[in-house]
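Journal club prep — side note

Before the paper discussion, L.F. wants everyone to see what a predicted structure for a comparable chain looks like in token form. Sequence:
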Amino acid sequence: MANWYLQNGKESDVVVSSRVRLSRNLNDFNFLNRCSKEKQEEILEKIKEIVPSLGYGLKFLKLDDLDEITILSLVEKHLISPEFAVKNKNAKAIIINDEENICIMLNEDDHIKMQVFGSGQELENIMNLIIELDEKIGDMIEYSYNKKFGYLTASPVNIGTGLKASVIVHLPALTLTGNLAKVLRIVNNFGMSIKGVYGESTQNYGDLYQISNNQTIGITEKEIIANVKNITEKIIEQERTARKYLCKNEIELRDMVYRAFGVLTYASKLGTEECRKLLSEVKMGVDLGILNEIDDGKVRKLELYTNPGNLQKYVGKALDGYERELKRAEIIKQIIK
């Protein structure tokens, strides 16, 4: 079976993926900003010992043992954060399975950052999996916990449940109709945050945005999931309404989609940003049934393998910027045909 990021899930015309993340720290160790390199290594060894007992096909990998292209490919899949990817004096590792729907960052800003992923809107299902994983780890390692405040974390915004639920949504029609800013305000008014897909402020990567909860204390895990799901449903409704509006001018919409598909199909070289914009329009065309030359699965492959890191993983060697532009166009042709 293909990895989760190459599959389509529920509401996948708008919701690209879901993630639930738990922040945990070990009881007998300082937070990382006051933790020596030796103690960080000790944390890694302590957690490494329990990995065989966790199941799920999980493997322990030190970040220093991974090459730069592999690390970049993990960032592009959203399995690790850009900040975690930076090799510095900290001792870092990941615990990951072959399906890559589970990825645990060790010594990011907290000792343990558990993450479970799913395609489409899968918040409830991945919530169940991460609770199961959390309980297994908690049975073998003592977490830093306070009866009043809950799980203690390096950042006050994560204290309490330590849970962040997020979805990545594709909002091309709201952008084209000029209604995106209004929707962003609605998200903020509901106590959620909306950012770019790599955690920065709302930078546009192919009309993709990440929505997540702000509150982690004074609220249960189920309530967090329900709140994120509710606001996601409102955004799905708004985006689909905007798409219906665009469909009223079918000739213009079809022209835009097929122009994008034509450039992707016949270009000799393509830059990353241009490719993301074209893929956004093509994905909308496929989701609306306008474009039948490719299916959802091929769109997913195009979205993954045209990113710099995964493009280089695909061809099996490092490439400079110009070589990537040439190879990107070549890979697109291979996938489409």
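L.F.'s comment for the group: The longest strand covers residues 15-24. Keep this in mind when we get to the figures.
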